[in-house]
Write a structure and sequence with these properties.
The structure is a single chain. By secondary structure, this protein is of the alpha/beta class. Helix content is about 20%, strand content about 35%. The chain has helices at about 40-50, 100-115; strands at about 1-15, 20-25, 25-30, 55, 60-65, 70-75, 120, 130-145. Strands 1, 2, 3, 6, 7 and 8 form a 6-stranded mixed β-sheet that branches. It has a two-stranded antiparallel ribbon with strand order 4-5. A hairpin with a 5-residue loop joins strand 4 and strand 5 (about 60-65). The longest helix is centred in the last third of the chain and has 18 residues, at about 100-115. The radius of gyration is 15 Å and the shape is globular. The N and C termini lie close together (about 10 Å).
Length: about 150
């Protein structure tokens, strides 16, 4: 699993000129599901994401978590995080999960986020999406399997 985490003041995602998800202060998550991912991995990723202390406290230090600031999540599936560009000029996506597995695990990811946090919005799996955001900082973190001991 790979997740690009962007701290935002606002973010939205559109499909066919229709807004399907919109948040205020919180995290935009670009979520890549790999072929070896499991529900156990997702549980650990969500736990880490919610506890990451990447929001500023009263002194301007990045010392608060998403739940501390009552932030929101906008999660967008993005298999292209698994692009392998080592050979040639055309990326391959052999390490990305199959569409069926990816959709199942992405839906599970969303359900775990919703169980743990109030406001969770999402993109539309498999759709061509346009994502807009107001980056806060900018503050961007990439979370991968190796960061959690997988």
């Amino acid at each position: 699993m790979k997740v690009v985490i962007q701290r935002v003041k606002a973010a939205s995602v559109n499909v066919d000129d229709r807004c399907v998800g919109k948040i205020g202060k919180g995290l935009l998550l670009l979520v890549g599901i790999g072929k070896d991912d499991t529900r156990q991995k997702i549980d650990k990723f969500v736990d880490k994401i919610i506890k990451l202390r990447i929001f500023e406290d009263q002194q301007g230090k990045t010392n608060l978590s998403l739940s501390d600031v009552e932030g929101e999540i906008l999660a967008v599936s993005q298999f292209t995080l698994y692009a392998d560009c080592k050979k040639g000029n055309r990326p391959n996506f052999l390490q990305a999960a199959s569409p069926d597995l990816a959709e199942e695990l992405y839906d599970y990811f969303l359900s775990v986020c919703r169980d743990r946090l109030g406001k969770v919005e999402a993109g539309e799996f498999g759709a061509n999406m346009q994502v807009e955001l107001v980056n806060d900082g900018p503050f961007t973190v990439i979370l991968e399997d190796s960061d959690l001991g997988f």
